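Hello again, I could really use a second opinion on something today. I've been staring at a protein lately and its backbone has me curious. Can you walk me through what the C-alpha cells say about the fold? Take your time with it, there's no hurry, and the full record follows here:
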Amino acid sequence: MFRGSYVALITPMTDSGLVDYAGLKQLVEYQIAHGTDGLIIMGTTGEAATIPFSEQLEVLAAVIEQVAGRCQVLAGNGSNSTAEAVEKTLQLNQFAIDGFLTVTPYYNKPTQKGMIAHFKAVAAAAAKPVLLYNVPGRTGVDLLAATVGELSAVNNIVGIKEATGSMTRLAELQQCCEKGFSLLSGDDATAAEFVLKGGHGVISVTTNVAPQGMTAMIQAALAGNREVAVTVDSQLQALHRDLFIESNPIPTKWALRRMGFIQSDFARLPLTRLEPIHQVVIEQALQQAKINL
C-alpha cells in the first residue's frame, strides 16, 4: 500500500529553460531529509505537459540514481491517448521505480466506460503498481467512485490520488474500493481531514516547500491525533491556498527560488513567471508556515 506524505516534485530549470540538475539534486535531498515518503516525478507539477518524453526519462534516471532506495519514486505516465500512455509505460518499465501515477485522459472527455478501458490497458502494460489520478479541475473529466471501485479489482491498480477535495467522494471510495486500495488526497487544503477520515496519505504540492510540516501533519492524522494534525495544518493553510494563486507550479517555483533551493523560477511556456503582485502573498504564506527565508 502507498501510504504517507508524497511530493509532486517540480522540475527546476535555468533561465535558459534547461533542466537544472544541481537544483534538482538539492530538492531531492531536502525532501528525503524531512521524511517525505515518496517523490512523484513528471506529474502535472513537474511540467510533464511541456517536457519532451526523452527529457523526462533523463530527469527520472537522475532522480532514481540519487535516491538510491531511500524513498519511493513514482513516475507520471499519463496521456489523453491510450496508445501513447501504454507506450510511455512500456518504456518506463525499464526504470527502477516503485509505481506509476496515471492521470485520467484529459481534454477529450471520455466516458466512464472509456476510462475503464484506458486504465486497464495501461495496467496491462505496467510492470509496477498503478495509482489512478483524478483531478477534474485540470482534465475536464471526473473518475467516479463506482468506476474506481471497478478498477480497484484490477490486479496492479492499487490506489488513487483523489483531488476533488470532497469528503463525500472519500466516503464513496471507501465503500466502493477493494480492501487495501490506497486512497491518497490530491488536495492539500483538505488533506488533513481526508486522512483523519480514513485516507492513507497525500500527494502534495505544498510538500515541495514544507516537507517537514506535511510529514508531521500526515503522520499525526494517520495516528488519529486530530489535535496535532489540525494544529500543524493550520500553519500550512496559507501555502495550500496561495501556491495556487497562479497556475501550478508557477508559485511553487518562485517560493523555492526565494528559499534558495533553485536558481530560477523559469517555467516552460505557456507557463510564465509569478507576477510581482503575487510575490508578497507567497512570501507571507511562507512566513506563516515558519519557513526560514
